[in-house]
User: Fold Alcohol dehydrogenase from Caballeronia concitans.
Amino acid sequence: MAKAVRIHETGGPEVLRYENVDVGKPGPGQVRLRHEAVGLNFADTYFRSGLYPVPLPAGMGVEAAGVVEAVGEGVTNVAEGDRVTYTGFIDTLGAYSTERVIAAAPLIKLPAAISFETAAGMTMRGLTSAYLMRRIYPFKAGDTILLHAAAGGVGLIVSQWARLMGLTVIGTVSSDAKAAVALAHGCDHVIDYSREDVAKRVRELTDGVGVQVVFDSVGKSTFEGSLDSLKRRGLMVCVGTASGPIPPFNPQILAMKGSLFLTRPALADYIADPADKRELADELFGHIAAGRIEIEVNQRYALEDAGQAHRDLESRKTTGSSVFII
Assistant:
């Protein structure tokens, strides 16, 4: 039988169960998909913990790559035998599985030059990086950004993409080892936030001006320092809450710190239009196939070891991308 990791209650990694599942046949607008590799994302821990509430029992994971084994009535975007990848949110929940039935709409055909493992390690991170680089702000060569978690999966892609665009990247990390990784992948400067004042160091590196944009995936513990790192009329992009949700605040603080802008974007809203998704995916896949952007898959797990994978992720032991090999 097919296998899947599911939860019957919310909580820590111990609630993840490796179970037999009956997949069945695809209905209208659906496909049956055999997974080859499944992505591990920090958002998965939010579903598991209950921060993102879903009806229980529930599958885990929103990103994977594999082969279409059967198609239901009305499916036109993919065919049996196609290599595909996907990412999403509630609509794709259940990726931690060997096989599944899934709506065909989220599926993206995968170029032959990109492996299943690479795809599972970068579809969410890569499309996130794509919209951050190409849709959030009108970057021009010479602009400077502050990138938190620069040695993480999104961080490594954003820093490489930013280098291609001629941007200066100041990355934050939590160790010397992660600093070396960030510098090797496009960061011009790194700040160890465990022992340095990020905003103060940013001001030193920018001659007191600050940066045009901050990409902050950490949240609660970095929010104030991120605002203090921006130049006048700079943009704060809240892309995650790894340290916890950002506490409520008075928007007047944005005026007091330089008429700042703030956005909390979600990938789903930037790939909701199929044409937008295709354009971003094509640019992303083109960079990867040409070797201009490298995807670092640094952790590999068996599906039954999902609990350990979540522990490693939450303890910040990982760098780059992590995948389950099916």
Remarks:
- The first helix runs from residue 42 to 49.
- The longest strand covers residues 30-40.
